[in-house]
Design goal:
211 residues, six-stranded mixed barrel, 41% strand
Length: 211
């Protein structure tokens, strides 16, 4: 079920007006896609951030544009890293019966036995590219690591098939692995030699120069 979000149409596109909106906590945005004429709107920043935080970046949003509801997904947004705020958002109008290609975060679950043996659990891949209809897109994909011993790994191809979405990421890509513990560094006395040997070498070099 789509989460609801309100938006207001806007006709003013001047930079000064857009900056004024942002100072008031309003985000300028555009709605487009699926043959629809692009519409400029404005949404409340707190409402949008709450929607993304609670529902995920791939959530289907029923965007109420001044009484006219349309199903959209957050396609992209630009941020101001200095002020830590969203500057502009793009909403894409979706066809609920057509599959879309999106990236979904991976969530590791369980405790790897290899970690208890001194191994290090590593996760080289954090997102999976999938194809699914909007309502079938999961907020995350769980990967069970509870059977991983030292030297074991899980690849994309090891994941169980799912009838609601298709994984597009290459099957050989590693998701998680438990690497062997790092070998201990040898002590200094085994790598640098005895101090007396060093002194003898330096003394011999000194005598050679005097001769």
């Amino acid at each position: 079920m789509a989460v609801k979000l309100k938006a207001n149409r806007r006709d003013n596109h001047t930079r000064s007006y857009l900056n004024e909106l942002r100072e008031e906590g309003i985000i300028p945005a555009i709605v487009y896609g699926n043959g629809k004429e692009p519409v400029s709107v404005a949404v409340d920043s707190i409402d949008l951030l709450k929607t993304v935080r609670d529902e995920g970046k791939n959530a289907v949003i029923s965007l109420d544009i001044t009484g006219d509801a349309v199903d959209v997904m957050l396609h992209d947004y630009q941020t101001d890293p200095l002020k830590d705020r969203i500057l502009h958002a793009d909403f894409f109008v979706v066809n609920m019966s057509e599959a879309r290609t999106v990236e979904v975060p991976i969530q590791l679950e369980g405790d790897a036995p290899g970690s208890k043996e001194g191994g290090v659990l590593q996760q080289p891949l954090y997102d999976l590219e999938i194809s699914a209809k909007p309502n079938d897109i999961p907020d995350h994909i769980s990967v069970d690591v509870s059977k991983l011993e030292v030297g074991d790994s899980i690849s994309v191809g090891d994941l169980p098939s799912n009838g609601t979405y298709e994984i597009l990421t290459d099957a050989d890509t590693t998701i998680a692995t438990v690497t062997a513990p790092t070998a201990e560094i040898e002590s200094d006395d085994t790598t640098t030699g005895d101090a007396s040997d060093v002194e003898a070498t330096e003394e011999g070099s000194k005598n050679d120069k005097e001769e």
